[in-house]
Amino acid sequence: MSEQQPHTEQRRLQRHRLNVPVVVSDCNRNLRLGRLVDIHREGLMLMGEQPLQVDHLYQLDLHLPEPLEGLDTLHLGVDCLWTRCDEGSTSHWSGFHIIDLSELAESQLEALIDMMARP
User: Fold this and answer.
1) Is residue 3 one of the residues assigned to a domain?
2) Is the Cβ–Cβ distance between 34 and 48 less than 8 Å?
3) Within 10 A of 107 (CB to CB), how many other CB atoms are there?
4) Is the pLDDT at 1 greater than 70, yes or no?
5) Could you report the per-residue pLDDT of 32-82, keeping only the tens digit for each?
6) What is the pLDDT of residue 20?
7) Residue 75 is part of which domain span?
8) How far apart are CA 50 and CA 33, in angstroms?
């Protein structure tokens, strides 16, 4: 597996670390990918045991600990920008750019950041 890491800091928005666990799965493969580490309106980072592919599009389900906007799952389309696996570890870190979300998902995302995130 070829690993890529970001070369320079490119974030324009502050990332928010969550104070509650949010499980992330690939809805096309019905596969648990890991847990959400941090998030902002344009991107997210997750950590899990599944290696992911850079420059690959994923449809993710974020399984929320409590319903937001009446639903307990947030659906996102993302592009994997980078991955990293620390030597001697089974943990895979991946960074994503959010490329597709419905109006409902956008509202849920804002509520997730407002209600359960810490700057």
Assistant:
1) no
2) yes
3) 14
4) no
5) 999 999 988 899 999 998 899 999 999 999 999 889 999 999 999 999 999
6) 77
7) 16-118
8) 6
CB 110 within 8 A of CB 41: yes
* 69 in any annotated domain: yes
Phi, psi at 42, each rounded to 5°:
-115, -10
DSSP state of 91: -
In sequence order, what are the residues at sequence separation of 6 or more whose Cβ sits closer than 8 angstroms to the Cβ of residue 59? 26, 27, 28, 75, 76, 77, 78
Which residues on adjacent β-strands are paired with residue 38?
17, 45
Provide the domain count of the chain: 1
pTM (predicted TM-score)? 0.81
Identity of residue 88 = G
Q: Among 110, 115, 119, 20, which Cα is nearest to 63's? A: 20
How far is Cα 99 from Cα 82, in angstroms, rounded to an integer? 15
CATH number of the domain that residue 87 is part of: 2.40.10.220
Give the CA angle between residues 13, 19, 45 to the nearest 5°.
45
Asked whether residue 106 is assigned to any structural domain, the reply reads yes
